[in-house]
Specification:
With 193 residues, the protein is of the alpha+beta class. Helices cover 50% and strands 19% of the residues. It has 3 domains: 60 residues, OB fold (Dihydrolipoamide Acetyltransferase, E2P) (Beta Barrel), CATH 2.40.50.140; 70 residues, DNA polymerase, domain 1 (Orthogonal Bundle), CATH 1.10.150.20; 49 residues, Helicase, Ruva Protein, domain 3 (Orthogonal Bundle). It has a 5-stranded mixed barrel.
Length: 193
């Protein structure tokens, strides 16, 4: 299963981004917020993917952060919320704003989003209120250096979850580390544990 794609931006508009990786172009549906964040043609990007397979289509939905990817997956669990509506929600509210709106039963803010009526907003609050805790446990965005550091630890024999945790701990100590120093700091954290 696809988790993320790294590659060069070939095309981008308010609905999709096309990324070339190893000679293959991946057309990925994106939230409008990603378009406005400004990846440009030929930029190297890493997009977190949620593939959706239907009888008549296969679509990729992409996000700039793991947090948005996981939020999208949670939104799809809500009755009546499909990929298009979930993408619209993430495009108009970041995960933190969405958490706050759900926790405070703010159906008014949710229903201002295109495609979200009063009933859908109420359903979102009702079905996701208890899952807010899991939203709060989602970590910060993973950039290319962070992902490379995680992969390096995995190649050294660390399980993926432990590698991720060690890198996050290292980043909390110093968020401006280059790849080599990030790996070194993570290994120091492993020695402490």
């Amino acid at each position: 299963m696809l988790d993320y794609i790294k590659g060069s931006v070939v095309e981008i508009n308010s609905e999709t981004i096309t990324i070339e990786n190893n000679g293959i172009g991946y057309k990925i549906f994106i939230p409008v917020s990603l378009y406005f964040k400004g990846p440009k043609i030929h930029d190297q990007v890493m997009i977190f993917i949620v593939p959706i397979y239907r009888e008549d289509s296969q679509r990729l939905f992409g996000f700039s952060t793991r947090k948005d990817q996981q939020t999208f997956e949670k939104l799809l669990l809500v009755t009546g919320v499909g990929p298009k509506l979930a993408l619209s929600l993430i495009g108009h509210l970041d995960t933190k704003e969405l958490e706050v709106a759900i926790a405070q039963n703010d159906t008014q803010s949710l229903s201002k989003i295109p495609g979200i009526g009063k009933k859908t907003a109420e359903r979102l609050v009702l079905e996701l209120r208890d899952k807010i805790k899991t939203f709060k446990n989602i970590e910060t965005p993973i950039d290319g250096t962070t992902q490379d550091a995680i992969q390096a630890l995995i190649h050294l024999g660390y399980p993926q979850k432990e590698a991720y945790t060690l890198i996050q701990k290292a980043l909390k100590i110093d968020s401006n580390l280059d790849l080599a120093n990030l790996i070194k700091k993570a290994l120091q954290q492993a020695a402490i544990n």
